[in-house]
Amino acid sequence: MRKWRNVIVLGIVLVALVAAYFLLKGQENAVDPQASATSTPTAGENPDAVKMLDLERDNIVKIVLKYADREVVLNLEEREVETEVEQEDGKVVPSTYIEKVWVTDAFQVDQTTVNNILYGGVNAVTRRLIDTEPSDLSAYGLDKPVTVTFTDKAGNSRTIEVGTSTPSGDDYYVRKGDGKEVYTLVRYLAEYLAPGPHDLISRQLYHRQDLTEEDMTELTFHRDGELVFSAYLKKAPVDWQITRPLEISANLQNLDRFLRGLSGLKASRVVDDRTDNLAAYGLDNPRYVLEYTLDGQSYVLRLGNKVGSAYYAMMEGRNLVYAVNADSLNYLDTPLRDVVLFMIYVPSIFDTSRLVIEIDGRRDVLEMDISQELAEDDVYIFNGKAIKDKEARTLFRRYYQGAIAISGDRLDLEAKPEGKAEVRLTYTSKAGEVTVVELIPTPDGYGYYAMKNGRYTGLVLGKRELDKEDKGIRKSYENFVSYLNELEE
């Protein structure tokens, strides 16, 4: 037994030694995840490594970028920023704080891009010395470089010139503004250091970045030069009403695609800041125009040509052409019928005190005072007779539901209804507001035009709508009256 025990111990030791060998071997061959072919060299490692900027980042207060056709001056300033703070009692109150931001008079600055410029400048250490006495700067793109000048609080200024990329594309040619020598600088630092002029412009479309669909209160949508619809938030948070080309409740499920998409819209890039050739972007006669109110601010968004996965876009009041992701605008071809709620009028039974139903030569009067809890002392009166039976009360409510369930099945905005109504529903709310729904026969015998308070809603419904087996008004009346008759027998 002792012999086998020794063998097992030796086996365990052998396995441990083998594992240790491969572990050490793996460490020899492992690659440092922080190291790469494009890592920035240091002066101690590379004799050609020269630090291009000797200013402290936190002391830099001004950056001037010169391009072939423009100069951009950026200054670091303190600005008061408005925000909201939730107190201990849960109340949200306005608040302000001070932050340092980069600004210019010409446009709103993209702060991330400027921070990249600073990063590129303070970390700019050259990789190779290419030419000590260059005779032809055009060979390096340094005859017309992008120049970046940093100035600190003490007034010290340093300039870095950025030319074209090397043939391999891994580096860019650079030199100090007060020097002759041409060096190479790793690509990502050079591109941070000298962004394109449009990259300096903020891509933020709105006055706040945290807006949601709940901040939107108005929306008008034009497509191909014609109005699709206008709508507004009638009652927060979800009661939206369409006002043009017809007055009717909105189908929030489909309208919400507009609200979410627009409130969260972001530009992927600034394409142009000179808008003298809008036709090139399809913005001289944009196909889509959306006017809306977000957090009390009005915006007009124009959308032009679609190129790849983006639309060209403009915001009214800004001479900027943006590119916006087409995926966030996938609702632009939604037809009006998908935004309309085809229900003619849907008041809650808990908010209604009286409903008069005139149909088939009959006039029924439903009076009610019903609570959300459906208590025993709730009031149900049908044609002057109080309803106490539990099942009868359920059928009373179903009759009411049959009335409010009457809905259109198509739109006809060109029709001009004439004639006498065959069905009339008169609702009186607990607040005393009266709403009248009337159904006027269509001349082709198909069904009815739906009217509300004497105005055509734009909705047409087939005659079969009144005879549905599950919730049709005729069937619910038949079930209700049949049960009442059984109670009397």
Strand content: 35-45%
Helix/strand/pairing category: alpha+beta
What's the rounded overall pLDDT mean? 90
Total of domains: 3
Strand order of the largest sheet: 12-11-10-9-14-15-16-17-13
CATH topology of the largest domain: Immunoglobulin-like
CATH architecture of the largest domain: Sandwich
How far do the termini sit from each other?
Answer: 99 Å
Number of helical runs? 7
What is the general shape? elongated
By DSSP, the count of extended strands is 26
The helical percent reads 10-25%
How would you characterize this protein structure?
Helix content is 19%, strand content 37%. The chain is α+β, with helices and mostly antiparallel strands. It has three domains: 57-200, Sandwich (Immunoglobulin-like); 213-339, Immunoglobulin-like; 349-488, no CATH class. The strands form three sheets. It has a nine-stranded antiparallel β-sheet, covered by helices on one side. The chain has a nine-stranded antiparallel β-sheet with strand order 21-20-19-18-23-24-25-26-22, covered by helices on one side. Helix 6 packs antiparallel against helix 7 (473-488). The termini are far apart.
